[in-house]
Amino acid sequence: MSSEKRPTVLSGIQPSGRLTIGNYLGALKHWLGLHDRFDCYYMLVDLHAITVRQDRDALRERCHEFLALYIACGLDPAQNVLFVQSHVPQHAELAWVLNTYTQMGELNRMTQFKDKSAKHADNINAGLFTYPVLMAADILLYQADRVPVGDDQKQHLELTRDIAQRFNKVHGPVFTVPEPMIPPVGARIMGLQTPTAKMSKSGDAETDALYLLDPPEVVTRKVKRAVTDTDNAIGFDVAAKPGVSNLLSMLAALSGEAIPALVDRFEGKGYGHLKGEVAERVVALLTPIQTRYHEVRAAPDYLQQVLREGAQRAAGKAAITLDRVHDALGYIPR
Length: 334
Ligand code: TRP
What we know:
This protein is mostly helical. The protein has 2 domains: 8-182 and 299-329, 3-Layer(aba) Sandwich (Rossmann fold), CATH 3.40.50; 206-294, Tyrosyl-Transfer RNA Synthetase, CATH 1.10.240.10. It has 13 helices and 5 strands. It has a 3-stranded parallel sheet. α3 crosses α12, α4 crosses α7 and α9 packs antiparallel against α12. The chain is globular and about 75 Å long. Residues 10-14, 45, 48, 135, 138-139, 147, 149, 153, 156 line the site of tryptophan. Tryptophan binds at residues 10-14, 45, 48, 135, 138-139, 147, 149, 153, 156.
């Protein structure tokens, strides 16, 4: 028997807004096969979510919706630990400890804190400030080796590494120092109306994003209205032709074709052709996902059981790390 330890992957998503094709092509899709090589933990970060005011019913609805969508997209609960952050109390417990290993100055430099406090100027709460410390706790509790994150979370991951190294320097090797897992190039999908900014799951403009639960006719309409430019010449140039380039990236991710091959194939054809094919591919991807989603959503007992089992497996691992932390700090064992 091999005693080889499989490395751990962990990622989290905020149960707010609605999951988009960008979430799927940029993240979810790449997670599906990871369980062959890694122990995989994916959580809904409902503790993070309340750093911005949430509506009670909407939050609960979103958690169920996101979980069902993860499963519908092919994330198998038997192969991946799927759970809700608030079900595992060790997250908040470790976050407290790590707060004392994090400097105010470090948190002050976080660009997400600056952005969010500008956006929510009436509620700059302490949780918003210490948000990255809770994220560090999420990651370090599971001794994660690799953390799939988008660009916007790299700074938080860097801080996580600094906190882990600082703690280890004082107390010995308690934490695994995690590495980012960067999605493949071209996997970053931009907004349809503002192709210079990432497609957002909580943006205000309905037409900017393709949501995983959009019906086919909505997908088709949104793609047809996507911003392009006036030369009607297919070409990949993110700076000069951000809209067309985004459509090409999406099609490449959806079809597996390389971008240069797509540019060749569409040469001399108008944007309408490109849009038509993008819409078709998106609908073909989403139709079975939506069918499966509605089946899973109609089985609340099943979802509850997935969460219960996920929380149990997660808490088992989290408890081991927290015990080591308490021991390192000199806390009296229970
Ligand atoms: N902060 C991340 C985001 O907004 C979500 C998150 C919370 C996360 N904890 C995490 C991501 C742990 C990766 C690992 O996208």
